[in-house]
Amino acid sequence: MQRPARRFVFVMLALSALLVGGPALLNYLVDPYDRFGNNRMGLYISAEREAKSTEVGRYPHNALLVGNSRMAMIPPDGLKGFRFFNGAFAGATPEEVYWFVHHFAQKEELVVLGIDLGMKDPAAKKGDGFREGDWGAALENIISLQTLEYSCKTMLSHWAGKPSHFRPDGAFGNEGWVKMADRDDSAYVRAQLESMQLAGENFVAPGPADLSFYRMISETLRERGILCVVVVPPLHEEISRHIEARHLQAARRAWLDEVRTLFPHVVDLSMSPYGSAENFYKADPGHFRPETGVRFINAEVVPVAERALRERGR
Asked: 43, 68, 73, 258: least CB-packed within 10 angstroms?
């Protein structure tokens, strides 16, 4: 190869390396999803699964909250008796919760598992979303143009002094979301409640085969000597009234009986006074307020856990 041609090839290779390697290095160092544990600027995008699977190993704790967005709203710094990390995330299925527990519940004294009334195995299984060593996905993430966009947004948000969406203990910084959820919008709330009521019309207690991931969670924690207390979070009072009016109490009790065959410690708050409308967001009857979650964990769940641990001789 002649010298000019060789020089051209070297220049093109160098430019290619710069164009690909530069953004990749930036994405790795900024780490907007906190996927590699390098993020120090804060999280400003929706990355609960990536961030919490990283931060759970960093944050000193002896108790773990797991479940879906209802549990994710509970701030650990208000909880008593234990030092909690909040490992719950929006839209979590029993399968995802199992894999999170499988990987990250190792030496805790306590796992508090939130299970919504009627929850069962997902129709379609997705597999282990928290497995290590998936270099293909990591490489795809680090060279992605979308990741580069989020890296830039992360830097700009950090330099502007904006608060991170997530805190080191797994808490969700929901100030912006609260402004939307706590507005007066009676028509929207009514539509939401009707949708939730309609979904409950076909509530049928699942059989043992429908709770396979909860069974695996129970077995995993028992093998590791970790106490598990299940909490069935409160329903909005209008949903409770609908269950009573439609005579769905038998199905509810049958579902609870199945859950209790798997977990010896179940705190059922689904139809409790915690379901008062004032304990929920004005425009979101599906989510109770963080202070409500703190109150019922401290008053109803922690005492059960402390008593069970005393019985174990701890």
From this structure: 258
- Inter-residue contact 191 to 91 (CB < 8 Å): no
Beta strands in the chain (DSSP E): 63-66, 84-86, 110-114, 227-232, 266-268, 280-281, 284-288
Q: For domain 60-136+169-311, say whether CATH 3.40.50.1110 is its number.
A: yes
Instruction: Copy the structure tokens of residue 117.
Output: 């009334």
Q: Quote the CA–CA distance of 203 and 248 in Å, as a whole number.
A: 8
Q: What are phi and psi of 250, to 5 degrees?
A: -65, -40
Asked if 219 and 263 touch (Cβ cutoff 8 Å), the reply is no
What is the value of pTM for the model shown? 0.81
Return the DSSP state at 224: T
pLDDT tens for 268-302 read 999 999 999 899 888 788 889 999 999 999 999 99
Domain ranges of the chain: 60-136+169-311
Distances (CA, A) of 279 to 137, 172, 215, 275: 41, 18, 31, 7
Report residue 17 as tokens: 């390396």
Token couple for 186: 């009676």
